[in-house]
Every structure is written in C-alpha cells, then in structure tokens.
Amino acid sequence: MSLELKKLSKIFYEEKGRGVVKALQDISLSVDDGQFVSVIGPSGCGKTTMLRIISGLESPTSGELLINGERPEEPWKQVGFVFQEYALFPWRTVCQNIEFGLEIKNIPGKEKRQRALEYINRFGMKGFEDKFPNEISGGMKQRVAIARTLVNNPSIVLMDEPFGALDSHTRSHLQKFILHVWQQSKKTVVFVTHNIDEAVFLSQKVICLSARPGRVKLTFPVKLPYPRDVTEDEFNRYRREIIEFLSAEMLSEPDSAIEVEPAG
Question: Can you tell me the distance from the alpha carbon of 72 to that of 157, in angstroms, rounded to the nearest whole number?
Fold first, then answer.
C-alpha cells in the first residue's frame, strides 16, 4: 500500500497551560507501494511521533494521512509497528509472543500455532519455540518482535530504530536479514534510524528531518542495486552527500521538501 502525509503537524500541550511542544511541522512525504524508505534526523525531531501518527497511536494536530489515497478510519488494521525496544512479554515464550496479535484477532488455536511456527522456521528460530525472552539473545529478541508484527500480515511496516540497541555485528546481520524479509514480502516499509550508513544500505529513499519541530529537509533517492557493499565508492558517495546536506542545512525554506539527485 502507498502512504502519503500532507502538511501534517503535531503539537503537544503541556499540563496546566505551561506551554506547548511543536513536534512536527507541515510534514509532506510519500512512500510508494512496496517501497523501503528510511527517515533520519536529530534526536527529538519527531521521527517516532510521525510513526505513531501513521499507526494511529497518535492523532495529528493538523494535516492529512492517506493510505492508498484515502483517509484510513483505523490505520492500525493496515499497519504493523516494530518498536525500538523489543516489547516482548517476559512471561510468554517465543511462540506465544508471536501468536499475541493473532489471539487478539481470535484466530483459532491450531491455525495460530501453525502461522507462528512458520515464522519461527523462516526466521531461523527453530528450536527456540518454547524459550522465554530472558533465555535468548538481543538479536533473537528482535527477530521475534519482527515476526510478531509480520505474522499479522500488515500492508505497511513501521520500524522505529529496531537495531539501535544491538552490537555492530548483530546489527549488520539483522540489516541483511530485514532486507531479505522485505524483498520476499514486498511490504511497504518506513524505517527510522540515526545511522546514515544503515539508511543508505537499506533504503530506496532517505527522508531527512530537521531539528524540532521536525520538517522535511531533504528527500534523497538511493539508486544503488541490491545487495549493497558499504566499502564501495558509490555507496560512500551517497553517504557523504547525505551528511553534507544535513550538516549544511542547504534548504532556504525548511518547511519545503525537495528531491535531490546525487552528483556524478
């Protein structure tokens, strides 16, 4: 499914009239059906707030959210969310954690178990079905969290810095893993990260947000074939140009969005 935000803003009002926090301002962006898009920007620029609005967990103060060109009444039915923290239930096993969303949908027990086991096998977790979260690694926990989201078959997958707490080796492994999952599933993915290398490695398009209130500073298409080699000159050229654009704050009107073709 395609996704579009039009002039979307979010203001949080503090208690007892002590002031307001402008989290997002006039965000306009589009994500095509089946596209992998990363969103980067400084801490506190509203990246997570934007994901929460797309998922239906927050309402925008103004602006419009469109899924397949229409305003969704219940976006959470079409959207899956992989959080920064694993958010696994410690009292449930790997299989039971993956089954959780299916339980809410009242999927019968046999089908629920079968679908969860399919993802356990696909995600390389066979033999860990009955392990609890405190018995598995951080990388395995994130696989469980991703499987718990995808088993519900969302059309759009939101990922909020899912690899931020992992060591570099595990992070690199899971980057390749999520690329494989995306290429197999053809889902639309919006991936929030602070890591420019990660954004270039994964994405077909990188969206750069300003400091709070978050505004779209730059829309940067990444036209490299998969799989990508982070040591190649072409990869590093993309990386450098995104860093330069972010550092120089090249937009004269920060609330406008542009698409930049890399030089060369």
Answer: 15
